[in-house]
Specification:
The chain is of the alpha/beta class. It contains five helices and five strands. A five-stranded parallel beta sheet has the order 2-1-3-4-5, sandwiched between helices.
């Protein structure tokens, strides 16, 4: 007996922005988990491991960010972090986020606002959905889930509340 699915599975999203690249700055356990999970959900993942002396900025600039791309800074202390955020927010990237505590985020947001950086309302900080996860894989899952939800125009909340 063959059952017809109400909503068939598809590897071809109707909105191309739902499948942009996932660009991650700094190699660490969280970025490695984001790379694995992002790949599993069908994203091209680019980890820019070098983040000192302008190499992070140069690495991301060379990618020519476009609509649908997601940029995630996995190390808020990376020397290039503020510049990468400025550049990513000025780009057509659909999602820009940074791993940081709320306290660290408040300070950075205040600094960027004082500089007059446009697009701060687009910045996801802290990155990810509120899953309560603490381990690198759990944090990465919450970040990739938020990226996927945003790409499909969803909030990322429980399906039972839809």
């Amino acid at each position: 007996m063959t059952t017809t699915r109400e909503q068939p599975w598809s590897d071809d999203p109707s909105d191309p922005a739902a499948r942009g690249r996932l660009v991650v700055l700094s190699r660490n356990p969280i970025s490695e988990a984001i790379e694995a999970i992002g790949t599993a959900v069908g994203r091209e993942v680019v980890v820019v491991a070098e983040d000192e002396e302008g190499r992070g900025v140069a690495g991301i600039a060379a990618l020519d960010l476009r609509a649908g791309d997601a940029v995630v800074l996995c190390d808020h202390d990376a020397p290039d972090a503020p510049r990468v955020l400025r550049d990513a927010l000025a780009s057509p990237a659909s999602y820009v986020a940074m791993m940081a505590s709320r306290r660290r985020a408040e300070g950075l947001l205040a600094d960027l606002a004082e500089e007059g950086v446009p697009g701060l309302d687009r910045l996801h900080v802290p990155a990810g959905l509120d899953t309560g996860g603490k381990a690198p894989g759990e944090i990465a899952l919450s970040v990739v889930a938020e990226i996927v939800a945003e790409g499909h125009g969803r909030s990322g909340g429980p399906l039972r509340r839809r």
